[in-house]
Amino acid sequence: MAIIAGLSKNCGTLCGGGVKRLWVANYDDIASFTFGVDNSVTTITMVATKKFYEVELKRQSKIFTETTNVSEGGCGYSLAQNFTGIGQCRDQDARNWLLSVAKQSCCGIVAVHEEANGFVGVWGYIKDQSIYLGGGTVISTGTALADPSQITLELLCDTTMDGLATELTGGVAAIEALT
Q: How far apart are CA 155 and CA 168, in angstroms?
């Protein structure tokens, strides 16, 4: 059976699912974003001594979604961004980190994530439309000994369509230079 035109534009691209890695920064720790002609982020300039922090979560437990909301008549659009991932073990370090994220939520967070398909995206970069800790964050002991003790992290961002996650040119190397 032949491939129908329009279903695939590049047969050499594999689009594996899932998020591999996540980095976060305080919104106010970023001095500026530079955008390319294609609206990708070409440079993130940090305030002196500030940096992004990697958030290590369980393998194959992370998902990022962007859901478009359309007003009646199709003239107004907004976007709900959601990241969910599972952290290993409920412990004091996880507690303290979650507390810092909750306290930072009012001032805003910016995130960069690397997808399994190689896309490295920046989101939460619009002032007053940045990321915050979501109510789907759960800290669980499990019930039985075989149940995991873990946190489920939810990060949310309500933004305009201009806030769609955009590519960070330079990929992982560009974000690792900011950590």
A: 19
Residue in 116, 110, 118 with CA at minimum distance from that of residue 169? 118
pLDDT tens figures, 87-98: 988 889 989 999
Q: What was the pLDDT predicted at 5?
A: 52
pTM above 0.85, yes or no: yes
Nearest to 16 by CA among 113, 118, 85: 118
Q: Which amino acid is at 95?
A: R
Whether the Cβ atoms of residue 124 and residue 130 lie closer than 8 Å to each other: yes
Close Cβ partners of 92 (under 8 Å, ≥ 6 residues apart): none
Asked if 149 contacts 142 with a C-beta cutoff of 8 angstroms, the reply is: yes
Q: For residue 49, is it left (φ>0), alpha (ψ between -120 and 50) or beta? A: left
3-class SS of residue 14: coil
Distance CA 70, CA 67 (A): 10
Domain edges within the chain: 22-176
- Both tokens of 176, joined, read 């690792």
**Which residues of the chain, if any, have pLDDT below 50?**
1-4, 7
Residue tagged 């507690």 (tokens): 95
